[in-house]
Design brief:
It contains three helices and two strands. It is mainly α and 80 residues long.
Amino acid sequence: MYIFFVPHKYPIEVVVLCPDVETIKGRERYREKTGYSGFTVETLYDTFMQTTPRIGFWLDNSNQTPQQTAETILNARKSV
């Protein structure tokens, strides 16, 4: 269970970026440090996908640039 205290005047919107495993691996190759010590990308991805509650807007941004991802999120927000 997750409990947050946020003043009512600030709405909370959850956005989960979930590119596919191959995209994560490709992006990790270009990063100076990694968040995957002691386990594989596949293991972390599978666990995350199976155990994370499906709340908010989930976006597979595998084939998007950061700009496209931002635009998709903003457009999704407008349609709510």
